[in-house]
Amino acid sequence: MGRFDKYNIDLRGHKTETLVMDFDLDNAFFADIDGEEFQRGAVKAHVVVKKQRDVFNFTFSLAGAVIVPCDRCLDDLIVEVETENELHVKLGDNYADEGDIVIVPEADGDFNIAWYLYEFIALALPMKRVHAPGKCNHEMTGRLKKHGHTTDDTDYDDSDVAQQIDPRWESLKAIHIDEDN
Questions:
Q1: How far is it, in rounded angstroms, from Cα 29 to Cα 24?
Q2: What is the spatial distance between Cα 116 and Cα 88, in angstroms, rounded to a whole number?
Q3: How far apart are the first and last CA of the chain?
Q4: pLDDT tens digits for 40-64?
Q5: Residue 4 and residue 30 in contact, taking contact as beta carbons nearer than 8 Å
Q6: DSSP assignment, residue 173?
Q7: Largest Cα span, the chain
Q8: Ramachandran assignment for 82, one of left (phi > 0), alpha (psi -120 to 50 degrees), beta (any other)
Q9: Is the CA virtual torsion 168, 169, 174, 180 positive or negative?
Q10: Rounded Cα gap, residues 91 and 106, in angstroms
Q11: Most CB within 10 Å of its CB: which of 10, 81, 130, 169?
Q12: What CA–CA distance (Å, rounded) separates 21 from 44?
C-alpha cells in the first residue's frame, strides 16, 4: 500500500450520487508530499464528490494551520488556513489537466487527490508571511537593521522602509501639474 493510496478515489466504481470523505492532514502527510511551501501542519479536509452525468464535481473544504518560515526572520510561523475549492473531473482517453477540469484515463479510473489537497492549502497562504510586529526573532531583526536601511532601535518592519524616501524623489513633489491644459 502506497503512502497516498487512501487519497485515491475510484471514479469508475463510484455507485452513489454523493461521496463524502474526511481526512486529517498532519506532519507525516506534508513531509511525504515533499512540497516546497511547507512541510508541517495540521489541516482537516472535508471532500464531497457529486456525480452529475459524466462529470465528478469535487468540493474541498480545508481548515487548520501550517508552519512556514517567516519571510523576515526565518523562524517558524503558524499560518491559519481556511479555504474552499472546487475541481471537476471527467473520465476520458488520456490524462489532461485543463485548469479546473481534470481528465482521468478511463482505463485507470482512479483519481488521487493528495497533491490537490496540498496545492489548495498552498494557494490559500498569504503572499507575505511575517510575524506580528515585535514577534520576530530579535537576533535576526538586529542583523537586518545592521545591514539594512533602518537606523532606529525599533523592530524592522515594512513601515520603516515606507517612511524613508529617497531624497531624489523629494524634488518631484515640488512639480505642479496643470491639469486644465
A1: 9
A2: 12
A3: 75
A4: 999 999 999 999 888 999 999 999 9
A5: no
A6: G
A7: 75
A8: beta
A9: positive
A10: 5
A11: 81
A12: 11
